[in-house]
Design brief:
Distance between the termini: 32 Å
Number of helices: 9
Structural class: alpha/beta
Strand order of the largest sheet: 7-2-1-8-9-10
């Protein structure tokens, strides 16, 4: 039997992210939190959408002097306002869900740590989220800030994959805008794009919305949420050609 190629995935740390992030995590053998790139205002490092009885709402971690000139791992949380208690909106929204206890445990595990770093808080939120899906094939995890990198852009991603002896680089769709696919091929690395699942499950508060936190799936489905996870990807040439 031939050996499965080692798949590396790389992503910025996101706060309680959507199901697409969960899929990429469980489709990788090594997963890198890209925490030493510039913070982008309006991104998803410190906020995520949830469903409420009043419609979609952003759940946001307040930041202390955030700047796009700072790295994600340099951004601190502004604790002047207790955002953790403000996130009571999660309990108000999902307390009626069949599996709310799972979400409650995740929130307690994250908020009880009282971390001040945005990066560490986002990573912790993701790790507890991923663990709740209870799939067996969890990858090894790394932080790019621990890897002493000097490269930028696509070259940075390539360097990480090579450092981790990756043979396949699995990525989200946004990478198509900057990734040098040919350079990866020259280095013997196959680039593949995640083929997200066709998620559809009974949600609270109206019609289905796939772009909310994965906490939603866990609250509504519990352990059954694992059936939503896709294990399919597409070669970069096929992805670009449509």
């Amino acid at each position: 039997m031939s050996r499965k190629p080692r798949t590396v995935a790389i992503s910025q740390p996101f706060y309680f992210p959507w199901l697409g992030a969960v899929e990429i995590f469980f489709n990788s053998d090594a997963y890198v939190f890209l925490d030493d790139v510039n913070f982008q205002r309006g991104g998803l490092n410190n906020r995520v959408k949830i469903k409420t009885k009043d419609g979609l709402r952003w759940l946001t971690v307040p930041l202390l002097k955030p700047s796009q000139n700072k790295l994600i791992c340099e951004i601190e949380i502004d604790d002047q306002n207790d955002f953790r208690s403000e996130h009571q909106i999660l309990e108000n929204s999902y307390s009626g869900a069949a599996h709310f206890k799972i979400v409650k445990n995740i929130l307690n595990n994250v908020f009880n740590n009282n971390l001040t770093s945005l990066s560490e808080t986002a990573i912790l939120s993701e790790m507890h989220l991923f663990q709740a899906f209870n799939l067996q094939n969890s990858p090894l995890t790394f932080k790019s800030s621990d890897l002493s990198l000097s490269e930028k852009g696509s070259s940075r991603i390539l360097k990480i994959v090579k450092m981790l002896e990756g043979e396949v680089y699995l990525t989200a769709h946004g990478s198509v805008n900057y990734l040098d696919h040919i350079e990866f091929e020259k280095n013997g690395i196959e680039v593949r794009y995640m083929k997200y699942g066709s998620w559809n499950y009974p949600q609270l508060y109206g019609e289905f919305n796939p772009f909310v936190s994965s906490l939603d799936a866990l609250a509504c489905l519990g352990k059954e949420s694992t059936r939503l996870i896709s294990f399919n990807s597409i070669h970069w040439r096929d992805f670009i050609s449509g």
